Amino acid sequence: MKTRVCRLHGRNDLRIETETVPEPGEGQVLLAIEAGGICGSDMHYLSEGGIGTIRVREPIILGHEASGRVVEPGPGVSGLSPGDAVAINPSRPCGTCIYCAEGLPMHCLQMRFNGSAIRLPHEQGLFRERIVVDATQCIRLPEGADLDAVACAEPLAVCLHARRMAGDVAGKRVLVTGAGPIGSLCAAAAAEAGAAEVVVTDLEDAVLDVARRMGATRTINVVRDGAEMEHYGENKGYFDVAFECSAAAPAIRSAVNTLRPRGVLIQVGVAGDTPMPVNALVAKEICLQGTHRFHAEFAEAVEAITSGRIDVRPIITGTYPLQDAAEAFRVAADRSRSVKVHLSFGQ
């Protein structure tokens, strides 16, 4: 069986190619991919050839956000039948290293993650029409599940883990800096958990419009209305929790300035070395907490989507067929019009 794949050969060198799909082995499943979401990491791989010190050193099939249907279960697989719709967890911790043993699988020393260039050989991704995966990566979906929405389970899982790292946000005043997919999903996660207020900031009106549909009680375009943030900085700050999703130094400063003493800053966005106002962190006794990937939250994200508790559909601002992947990536990079762009694999 042949399949088309979306493979990156180097910076700005994205190709749709054909390769042979193997038969599923013991404990594996052959899937037909339905929908795949373009992530910021995919875009960095394409436009910059990597992210920070992580470089694309060999051709890699992109993609780690996807849903699909079972074509053929392999030997030893139970609970999955041909035609079943599934969410695909791209994360495969080893289960035996010191961090897995401590209950910290997101820090696995031998982590395998679809579409990641961290290791060599690279872990190939999900942007292809057919793929063989471990059956343990699949979560069977209820009848009638929206597979486009379910393809957002991976980024939602990132945000549910970030919410967990923040502690109880019920009744809290929450700031989200950056209204990309992760920012909007953090807003939705905070709202779903009962936050009293969810204020979202960004540079673009289009993405802020989506954030409002995702649960933001107020949005602020900091280019046009940046002075509005000054009020939140009065009397040492206003917000109890901030989810910083941009990794931009001005946004980090704004978050620290507007957090109340002993507030919690969850650093979700990633970049290289970034200036941070340490004096203010110390003076206001702010808790700075990093957050990395997810584990149990993937299944929680799938349930939240399929049950309707969190409606992720507003973040999906465009869908393109696989053959138009280059255009899809171009549109996804335009934050004046896009939040989350999907590829459709046209089953």
Name the poorly predicted regions. Answer: none
Distance between the termini: 15 Å
CATH superfamily of the largest domain: Medium-chain alcohol dehydrogenases, catalytic domain
| Helix content class | 25-40%
Which secondary-structure class do the elements indicate?
Answer: alpha/beta
Query: What's the architecture of the largest domain, going by CATH?
Result: Alpha-Beta Complex
| Cα shape | globular
Number of folding domains? 2
The major pleated sheet works out as:
7 strands, mixed
Describe the structure.
The chain has 347 residues and is an alpha/beta fold. The chain folds into two domains: 2-152 and 312-344, Medium-chain alcohol dehydrogenases, catalytic domain (Quinone Oxidoreductase, Chain A, domain 1, Alpha-Beta Complex), CATH 3.90.180; 159-290, Rossmann fold (3-Layer(aba) Sandwich), CATH 3.40.50.720. It is 28% helix and 29% strand. α5 (181-192) packs parallel to α6 (205-213). The radius of gyration is 20 Å and the shape is globular. The two termini are 15 Å apart.
